[in-house]
């Protein structure tokens, strides 16, 4: 419409991109400097790269354990939520269940509640109520996988519903007429068609679980602590180890960045909660 | 249609899980909030004490202060994000070289963990190691120390939120702007309307549903901001950035006064619902009545 200079927007967006990228670059700068150099005048240009902070993080047995916990919890939670979300959405889209729209809406509202409100009740329930004899869910990976379902399962249902509604019902009805069992219809007709939607859901729930901090910080104390809680442990009022803290941050950031660069287009819609289509 | 039993069976795991980790915690927190309960006190039993906890919450100066700064934070963050996000969305509406690339970079912060965003901004703003205090001091002689100045700490948390979440607003508004039909704009230009008139009388009313949806999502998220602020300022200095989530995490949770902690949680949940309801009534309801 307007015939402005073509390069003016490029200049403008270069500036905006600089504002977006510089803080991330600065994180990297701090992570590759020895502690003594940090307190001299901060310099933006890297002359040499010092990898010791990363080696220290990888060499730390506790932090390695946190990484494994993060990996196990996010993967377990993402698979569980995607699977249950798929089942629930199949039921919601194919069966004439009474009150199913209310059920759908109710599951979504679970994600809207501020997690801080549920810190205390979840803590009390996990430590005192949800236990069988010696076995309690508090400070276990299983416990965290289940707790993370409170925000990820509603999200999975929200994103998978359009996918399953979009698969024509005639396809599974035809298969039923041919004498296929319900299991066969779901696994061989519906599942392959829903695969792209399932992949996006799996990826996003994984990232949300990986990024979570508040619940992990309050509901775990040693066995199931995650990388994000490890990060906060390095911030103390007296002498934070900045280099280590930056290196842990980079480790936490990397999986999300890789995923983002691979499937950027598909996940934007999911991130904006369906407000954006593409 | 095939048997409903199968449908319920497929839905059951979800319902059971959300019941135990969504409904039960809610009922439980409500139940505990009407009791005096401190398992580590001389008397560790739960004692029903009517609405005593709620009476204390209403007069709790710390909690009220926390509520006040939360409202200020949410207001400044969401309004700035809306204005900047709209400007950026408009800037994306014309074609220029590398548009897709710039859009990708702009989206980047959305995928980042809030706690990492907090750690990044802590490394940016901590005096002695951060780049911002140094540059501001060298170039303008301005002293930035978010550990000392309440106003500076508050402002940095708002800027951090803008950095993190403006892309969400931009993307939502781009989607809305792209889907607008060109006819009304052409007609308005023919009729000699100026840019400001077009914005107020055509663009704004047409993208209103998208703006409402975006504000809604952002408001909910901003109200529950905890991780990044906890990392950046820890709620300080004093209680300058102790937003309700941070308040619960730092002040309420560590204390063993569970009845009182539960009452605060219930009040925060109630206020969140009220905030959403007010937004709904003031933005969506008037539109519907006008239509009807």
From TrEMBL, chain A:
InterPro entries: BP-dep_ABC_trans_perm (IPR050901), MetI-like (IPR000515), MetI-like_sf (IPR035906). Keywords: Cell membrane, Membrane, Sugar transport, Transmembrane, Transmembrane helix, Transport. GO terms for biological process: transmembrane transport. It is a multi-pass membrane protein. The chain crosses the membrane at residues 7-28, 71-92, 112-130, 142-160, 242-263. Pfam families: BPD_transp_1. It is found in: Cell membrane. Its main location: membrane. Residues 67-263 form the ABC transmembrane type-1 domain. One of its GO terms (cellular component) is plasma membrane. Part of the ABC transporter complex MalEFGK involved in maltose/maltodextrin import. Probably responsible for the translocation of the substrate across the membrane. This is Maltose/maltodextrin transport system permease protein MalG. It comes from Paracoccus alkanivorans.
From TrEMBL, chain B:
It is a multi-pass membrane protein. Residues 63-279 form the ABC transmembrane type-1 domain. It comes from the Bacteria. The chain crosses the membrane at residues 7-31, 63-88, 100-121, 198-220, 258-281. InterPro entries: MetI-like (IPR000515), MetI-like_sf (IPR035906), Sugar_ABC_transporter (IPR052730). It is found in: Cell membrane. Keywords: Membrane, Transmembrane, Transmembrane helix, Transport. GO terms for biological process: transmembrane transport. GO terms for cellular component: plasma membrane. PANTHER family: GLUCOSE IMPORT SYSTEM PERMEASE PROTEIN GLCT (PTHR43759:SF1), TREHALOSE TRANSPORT SYSTEM PERMEASE PROTEIN SUGA (PTHR43759). Belongs to the binding-protein-dependent transport system permease family. This is Sugar ABC transporter permease.
């Amino acid at each position: 419409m307007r015939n402005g200079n073509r390069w003016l927007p490029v200049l403008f967006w270069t500036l905006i991109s600089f504002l977006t990228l510089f803080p991330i670059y600065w994180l990297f700068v701090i992570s590759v400097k020895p502690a003594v150099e940090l307190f001299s005048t901060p310099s933006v240009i890297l002359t040499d790269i010092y990898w010791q902070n990363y080696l220290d993080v990888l060499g730390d047995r506790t932090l390695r354990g946190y990484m494994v916990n993060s990996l196990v919890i996010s993967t377990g939670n993402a698979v569980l939520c995607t699977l249950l979300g798929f089942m629930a959405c199949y039921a919601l889209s194919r069966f004439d269940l009474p009150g199913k729209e209310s059920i759908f809406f109710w599951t979504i509202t679970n994600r809207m509640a501020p997690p801080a409100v549920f810190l205390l009740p979840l803590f009390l329930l996990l430590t005192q109520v949800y236990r069988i004899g010696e076995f309690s869910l508090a400070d276990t990976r299983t416990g965290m996988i289940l707790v993370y379902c409170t925000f990820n399962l509603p999200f999975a249902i929200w994103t998978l519903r359009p996918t399953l509604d979009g698969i024509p019902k005639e396809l599974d009805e035809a298969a039923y007429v041919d004498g296929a069992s319900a299991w066969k219809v779901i696994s061989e007709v519906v599942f392959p068609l829903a695969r792209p939607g399932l992949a996006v859901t799996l990826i996003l729930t994984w990232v949300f679980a990986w990024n979570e901090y508040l619940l992990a910080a309050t509901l775990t104390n040693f066995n199931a602590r995650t990388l994000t809680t490890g990060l906060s442990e390095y911030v103390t009022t007296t002498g934070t180890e900045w280099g280590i803290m930056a290196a842990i941050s980079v480790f936490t950031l990397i999986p999300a960045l890789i995923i983002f660069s691979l499937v950027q287009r598909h996940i934007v819609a999911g991130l904006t909660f369906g407000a954006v289509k593409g | 249609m095939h048997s409903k039993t199968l449908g319920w069976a497929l839905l059951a795991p979800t319902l059971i899980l959300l019941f135990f980790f969504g409904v039960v915690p809610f009922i439980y927190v409500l139940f505990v909030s009407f009791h005096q309960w401190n398992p580590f006190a001389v008397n560790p039993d739960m004692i029903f004490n009517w609405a005593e906890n709620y009476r204390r919450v209403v007069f709790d100066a710390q909690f009220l202060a926390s509520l006040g700064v939360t409202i200020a934070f949410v207001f400044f963050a969401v309004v700035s994000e809306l204005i900047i996000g709209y400007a950026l969305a408009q800037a994306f509406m014309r074609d220029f070289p590398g548009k897709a690339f710039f859009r990708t970079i702009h989206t980047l912060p959305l995928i980042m963990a809030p706690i990492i965003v907090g750690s990044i901004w802590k490394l940016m703003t901590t005096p002695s190691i951060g780049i911002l205090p140094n540059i501001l001091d060298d170039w303008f002689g301005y002293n930035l120390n978010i550990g000392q100045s309440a106003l500076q700490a508050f402002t940095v948390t708002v800027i951090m939120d803008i950095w993190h979440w403006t892309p969400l607003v931009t993307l939502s508004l781009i989607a809305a702007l792209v889907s607008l039909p060109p006819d009304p704009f052409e007609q308005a230009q023919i009729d000699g309307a100026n840019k400001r008139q077009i914005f107020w009388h055509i663009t704004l009313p047409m993208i209103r549903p998208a703006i409402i949806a975006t504000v809604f999502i952002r408001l909910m998220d901003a109200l529950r901001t905890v991780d990044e602020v906890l990392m950046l300022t820890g709620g300080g200095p004093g209680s300058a950035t102790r937003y309700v989530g941070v308040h619960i995490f730092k002040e309420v949770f560590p204390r063993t006064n569970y009845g009182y902690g539960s009452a605060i949680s219930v009040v925060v949940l109630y206020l969140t619902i009220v905030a959403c309801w007010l937004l709904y009534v003031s933005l969506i309801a008037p539109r519907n009545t006008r239509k009807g």
